[in-house]
Amino acid sequence: MLHDGWLRPMQVRPFSRSALELIAERCSHRTYDGASLDPQLRARLVEALESPPGTPFGNEVRLELVESFDARARGVRLGTYGMIQGARDFIVGGVRPGARDMEDFGFVFELAVLQATDLGLGTCWLGGTLKRGAFAEAAGLPEEMIVPAVSPVGRVKARRSLVDSATRALARSSKRKAPSELFFEGSFDRPLDAGGELAQVLAAVRLAPSASNRQPWRTVRAGDGALHFFVRRTPGYASVTAVDLQRIDMGIAMCHFQLAAGELGLEGGWTEMRPEGIPLPPRVEYAFSWRPGPGA
């Protein structure tokens, strides 16, 4: 069930810097220096993880910081199939199954990633190349919780490994779709010409990370100013388990939208108001909407 909270009163843990700055700075790192986290940094990160914000759709999300050597000492081997090198610590996230659970998870976990960025630490979303059961056990999560994703966290090496560089190139991680491919006015055949604060908010959405950099989010602005969010499904990414990576991506986009809108003073809230009269392109599904507040 949706919350009625507007963007302004929906609290998220504050950063020491501008959220827009952190969103622009964040990128994926798969190569780390192998050192343990500084104790003060660890304490600050744990504090942030232990008090996650409320979620847009009300699902419970838990975040834990797991040390790989500690897990190994307890007989748990954390596997990322060679995608990550030199990482000793991981942020592990779990969510209780429920309606829109993946969106809520993406929202909260991306906040944690940005909090790590605020501390000068590297991260990398991992949703498809991990041993979920091992991470759940290491984090001490309840059996009923799903682990949709984890992230290494730590100091990054100045030079990326060959695997890291190849993975970035394969996913075209430094490339983003043009705004005209993502944001629309009234229908999907008319690109949105946004200005002012809204243009900055959508620029933050455009920078959101996504599985294989597919950037599945699409928005259509209606005549009343509401923004309807849609997911454009990628063939082969249909969910065959409880984890739906592209719904997680939508939660990440939602997080960037809310942080940017809150920082720039745009009032509004999340709701479900499925629009009528907007023909959908192939593989496009309605997700949720953002409705401007009284002061917008």
Sheet bearing the most strands, described? 5 strands, mixed
In quaternary terms, these chains amount to single chain
CATH superfamily of the largest domain: NADH Oxidase
Rg to the nearest angstrom? 19 Å
Per DSSP, the total helix count is 8
Identify the CATH class of the largest domain. Alpha Beta
- Cα distance, first to last residue? 25 Å
Beta-strand proportion: 15-25%
Shape: globular
CATH fold-type name of the largest domain: NADH Oxidase
Order the strands across the largest sheet as they lie in space: 5-6-7-9-8
Total beta strands: 9
Residues in helices, as a percent range: 25-40%
Mean pLDDT: 87
* Low-confidence runs of at least 5 consecutive residues: 1-10
Please tell me the CATH architecture of the largest domain by its name.
Answer: 3-Layer(aba) Sandwich
> How many discrete domains?
2
Could you give the order of the helices and strands?
HHEHEHEHEHEHEEHEE
Q: What structural class should be given to the helix and strand makeup?
A: alpha+beta
